[in-house]
Each structure stands twice: as C-alpha cells, then as structure tokens.
Amino acid sequence: MPISYNNPVYPYHRAPELDRDDVRHCPVVIVGAGPTGLAMAIDLAQQGIASVVLDDNNTVSVGSRAICFAKRTLEILDRLGCAQPMVDKGVTWQRGRVFFQQREVYEFDLLPEEGHRMPAFINLQQYYFEEYLVNRVDELTDLIELRWKHKVTEVVSRPERSEVLVSTEDGDYRLSCDYLLVADGANSKIRDMLGLESKGQVFQDHFLIADVIMKADFPTERWFWFDPPFHPNQSVLLHRQPDNVWRIDFQLGWDADPEEEKKEEKIRPRVQAMLGKDVEFELEWASVYTFRCRKMDDYIHNRVFFMGDAAHQVSPFGARGANGALQSTENLAWKLARVLRGRAPEALLATYNDERQHGAAENILNSTRATDFITPKSRISRLFRDTTLELAEHYPFARRLVNSGRLSIPCRYDGSPLNGHEAEGLPLELRPGSPAKDAPVRIAGHPAWLLNQLGDRFVLLLDGRVDSARAERLKAELEPLFARHDDLDLLVVGPAPHALSELPRSTSIEDTEALVGERYGLTGGIGYLIRPDQHVAARWNSITAADVDAALDRALGVHLAPSSVQGGTHATA
C-alpha cells in the first residue's frame, strides 16, 4: 500500500434493479472502472450516450503502476475534461539519457519544437490518474452510473444484445444492453467466460519495480542504464514521479524468484547500490513482473467489445499500455455514439477492430523489439547490442538502433477503410488516418489552442484566406452541406472574407504564430476533414461540397458491407 497516498474508498449503493421484476435494458454497460472503462464512459457521455459502469472493487489502483502519459494521451484527456489536474500534479519531462556501463552515450529530446499545449510526457502515479477520472465522472452523473462493488458473474452474448448477471452484497440482478464494453484487465474474466483468448509471447525475464520516496537532485529526465556497475549484466530504468517518489525498474533475469525479489530485504541492497550508501529512502511499493506481448485476434464478439489490457497487452518499456488503451477508447466512443443515435450503420463498429488491431500490432512490434534489445538471449544479439551502444556515443546513426523502449507515439491508421481523399503536396505526417496536430490560435481576440476546437464532432478545417468572389461561391456551395450534416462544424483559418463566417456552425481562428499554416501546409482553399477523435479523415488542395459529403459518408462507414456476427454464447463464472 502506498505510503504517500491514501486510496479513496468509494461508496457502494444498492442497485434499484434489485427491487424490480423485469430486466432493465441499457444502451451501454461497461465492465471495469479502471482508466479504460472510466475514460470510455466519459467520452460516451460527452457525446450524449448514457452508460452503466460496473466494478467489483471500491477504490483506485494500489501502487503507481502505469506512470508515463504521452502527449497524445493528454490531448485525449483534455478533450474529456480531465487533463489539467494531471498536468498540474504530474512531473513534466521530455528529455532522456542512455548510459552504457559507467558512461552516458547520448541524450534525446522528445518535443524540441514549441507551440503545443500539452507536454511530451508527464509522470503520474496511476492512482492519481484514476482518481481524477472518477472526479470527472462525478460531474456527469446524469449520463454515467458508476457502481462500486458490483461484480459481473455471468455473461450472455447474442448477436442482437448482451446480458450480464451482477452480484452484490444485497443480492444478484440482471442488466441487458445493446453493447457490452469490457475493460476488466489483462486477466479478463469476461474474456474467459466467453471462451476467448489473448494470444502472444511471454518473454523469459523478470523485472522488479521499486517505487522509493527520497529527496534527490537528479534532473527530471528518463534515465536508462545498460549493464551499469551497480547492477552488472542487467538494465535499470529511473523515472521521477510526484511526491518525491522515484520509479526504478531492475532487470532480474529469468531465474529470479519473484516472491523472494519482492521482499524488502532483497530490494534495499539493490536500491542502495544504485543511489549510494548515504542516500536515505523509503520503499513505497514493489512488484515483480514478466513481459507479455499479446492480443485477441478479434476485439468484437457479437455486441461485446474488448478494450485496453483485456484486448491487448504490451511490455511496459515504452509506455504503450495505458497510452494505447486511451487511443482505443477514443477510437470506439465516437463510432458507438453515432451508431446508437442512428447517424451511422452498425458496420462502422467493425472498423474499431480494423484500426485498433493495427495500433496494437504496432505497439507489440515496438515492445517486442525493445525487449529483445534490452534482454539479448544469445551471444550474437548481446554483441550487436553492446556494439550499437559503443557506436551511439559518437555516431548519430547508431542512436536510432538503440532501443530502451521506443516511447509511445500516436497511431496513424494507414489503410483504414474510413480514410478519404489524400491531396498531393501536403505534410506527410498529417495524411488521412493521422491524429491532428496542435498549434496556438486566437478566437475573437482571445488566445486558444487548435485541438480544443476539434473533437466530439466532425470538423471541416478550411483555409479561408481566399478572395471575396471565391468565398461567396464556397458559401453558396457549402450551405446545403451543413444543412444536411448537423454533426459537422466549420473552422476557418483567417483572416477570411465575411461570407465564410456566415456559414452555420462556423468559427474563425487567427493563426497567430503561423504554426497552423506551417504544420498543415495551408494555403487558401485547402481543407481537412477531422473525425470526432481528432484524426484526419480526408484532405484536399481545393474543397468542394461533393468531396466533403463523400468523405463524411466514407468516415461514417456508409460504404461498408454489413458486418457478420457470431452465434450466441452463454457463459458463467
């Protein structure tokens, strides 16, 4: 149990379904009130969809667990209304250092450019993260029912609906739902109940996490050692967290006894050897883990959707677990909201599996490569690693080969069936399927950020710096489009002719530092269609209403064939 943090205990409430004879039907039931389940409930609520969240516990996680939250994750959480307390509490960093034996071989900077609201990374204990999510849920109780100490013990999965049996201290009750969203962790009970598998690789090595409380003058950076003198032939990672807590990961080797290594009398000498004999510290939390990289072949079973660690699991080096999970929730939420509101065909939901299988495969590939580099299993691979580190001290080309955990970057959905038109000559990093980039802007004379104008709805980002005659033609052409699509907003980069500001749901922004134009390659008439999850759907050098209309239909899956469903399954715990 953490020394520096008092886990809040959330109240259990008797379910009203215990006092009714029929089975209540809900649009969405979410199993698991960890980061994935809570973020999903918040995202759906912001798009008008109610959910019931069930968790068999009544507090947040014990121990710091996931601590590194990437810029894209913070941007997602900012859209959900809970990033600021994380940034305020978290330790911001963007620089890292790599050491080999007794010397530093190089350093890196993850965000060398200015003009982004969110930092490259923050470090924050998972229990704070979950608490802030619960606080945000408490602001959305008209659309989110969060039920603590309500355990799902049976699942019925059918093509047209799902049903769960929930056990509580007051008795059992049933809920049926249009969609059951499963976020109950790597050892998912729901996955087991349905006879489904998560397949992959278990790496033959053990790692010790030791969170220690100490006052140290180390800079706020990521430090990674290969074969250090204080822990020879192994690797060590150091991160700073809030409250003077420092995360240290020690590679132990496959022969290590996990239960022995978790004992304080085994941990203290390791930490003392690293920090020096005169440094005083308290051990806050410790755990021993084995790398696992695995995923389900299909995240969708009838109307049951698996998310986060229940769907895919990666080794922790590279901070891809929680960050990948949040990219999954943002991918599914907008699609599910539109299907439930009748704005998109059910076939759209199959693209959650298409796009997030791509994301998980990318994360697993990077995690596997990092693991192979950190823990070489042969003399040749060890020689390659050590030679690469020797060269990296002097030659930049070798630094690209060093893999101490490729840090989480946003996934681009290349090849997605939802991607629309691609224009020539525009920045490659913002091709269809890519997450939008932030930049400072001004709106009505007040400073703002571009990403805060995107999300939850479709947005047509248009460079409106055209002459008056062209602006009038665009206005006349686009007016019927905005009348047909009330889920579409217009964001005009100006100064633009007055005609464009008269279009429905139009907002004009000023590119105060010319960074929107630079990052998006804008000139007059260029347009980007941005999805509700802030990913680029299509882009044009010169827009037409017909092109935007077609891209909207494609992004909503109108062109997709109806997806097949599996036969019904009944499972009990």
What labels would you give this structure?
single chain, 573 residues, alpha+beta, FAD/NAD(P)-binding domain, Glutaredoxin, 9-stranded mixed β-sheet, 15 helices
Largest sheet geometry: 9 strands, mixed
Identify the quaternary structure here: single chain
Q: What is the CATH topology descriptor of the domain at 16-89 and 119-198 and 295-367? A: FAD/NAD(P)-binding domain
Which structural class is indicated by helix and strand composition?
alpha+beta
How does CATH name the architecture of the domain at 16-89 and 119-198 and 295-367?
3-Layer(bba) Sandwich
CATH class designation of the domain at 16-89 and 119-198 and 295-367: Alpha Beta
Residues in β-strands, percent: 25-35%
What is the CATH H-level superfamily of the domain at 16-89 and 119-198 and 295-367? FAD/NAD(P)-binding domain
Number of strands: 29
Low-confidence stretches: 564-570
Helicity level: 25-40%
Describe the structure.
By secondary structure, this protein is α+β, with helices and mostly antiparallel strands. Among the domains are: 16-89 and 119-198 and 295-367, FAD/NAD(P)-binding domain (3-Layer(bba) Sandwich), CATH 3.50.50; 428-555, Glutaredoxin (3-Layer(aba) Sandwich), CATH 3.40.30.120. It contains 15 helices and 29 strands. The strands form 6 sheets. Strands 1, 2, 8, 9, 10, 11, 19, 20 and 29 form a 9-stranded mixed sheet that branches. Strands 6-5-14-15-16-13-17 form a 7-stranded mixed sheet, with helices on both faces. The chain has a 5-stranded mixed sheet with strand order 26-25-24-27-28, with helices on one face. Strand 15 (235-241) and strand 16 form a beta hairpin. The longest helix is centred in the middle third of the chain and has 25 residues, at 350-374. The two termini are 29 Å apart. Residues 564-570 have low confidence and may be disordered.
